[in-house]
Amino acid sequence: MSTTEIQTRTVHTELLAEAGALRLRAIALRSHADDLGNIVAPSYRRRASELELESWLLEVRSGIPDELIHFAA
Asked: Of 10, 15, 19, 72, which sits most exposed with the smallest number of CB within 10 A?
């Protein structure tokens, strides 16, 4: 296995780790939104959707098989 292939796999792993972290942050924001008032909650939910979309894009870029990619909100 060449150095380039090893570096590519590292990048893929980093992208997947970042995608997972973003997805967890989105879940946390959605759960906090349920406890907030009507003024702030939509902003939390909107940001959660943005994070989920970014997470989805990172998973697509990582090169994992399509069936393992989480769907964006």
From this structure: 10
Best CA proximity match to 35, nearest among 47, 25, 24, 45: 45
User: Is residue 43 included in any domain, yes or no?
Assistant: yes
How confident is the model over 18-63, as pLDDT tens digits?
999 999 999 999 999 988 888 899 999 999 999 999 999 999 888 8
Task: Note whether residue 14 is domain-resident.
Answer: yes
How is residue 71 written in tokens? 């769907």
The domain total for the chain is: 1
Task: Give domain status of residue 73, yes or no.
Answer: no
